[in-house]
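User: I'm writing a tutorial on reading structure tokens. Could you give me a worked example: one chain, its sequence, then its tokens, then a sentence or two explaining what the tokens reveal?
Assistant: Sure. Here is the example chain.
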Amino acid sequence: METALDAYEVKVSDYVEGAGCFTIAFNNWDSNRQEFKSIGVNQMTEGTEVEVKAGFNTGVRSLIVGEVTSLEPEFTENQAPMLKVHGYDRLHRFRRGRKTRSFLQMKDSDIAQKIAASCSYRLTQKIPKSRMIMSCKAISDIDFLLERARRINFEVVVKDKTLFFHKTANDKSKVVSIEYGLTLRTFFPRLST
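And here are its predicted structure tokens:
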């Protein structure tokens, strides 16, 4: 696919709380024909599913599966025109709207299953059973699930089209040490409030 050859930069951010996101920058200029390319017209439109993979040979793994949420063309004086494609994993859909509802005599796991099965999310679930809860105030679905997860030491993750609401896994992976200038060559920290 020619579009893959035009990819200039790929960024993937995975957050502990909230939706993971990606940005892919494409060269959007055909220097042979001296005209714009049609990137975004057919391949990349809002809602298009995108999977970003990284690795070598048989070690390729998926970093994020999400959907395009915005297109951002860039026109600068010193560079060829670019098109930045931004998107999020499906957890971003949980931010849409605030709801007030009651979940009487329901476990957190049952509530997470009910929310994931909502017609607007259409997610399968990987959710173990958990304890009881009484009600829900006017907040978005993701804020509600994150609040419940924090209270019972769970995490909320969406991988492709599956919602995981389970015990935190922060004690199950190895610690990785990196050192700027040695194993870490580029570093772009950002503080977000």
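What the tokens reveal: The chain has two domains: 2-92, 96-167. The first strand starts at residue 7 and ends at 13.
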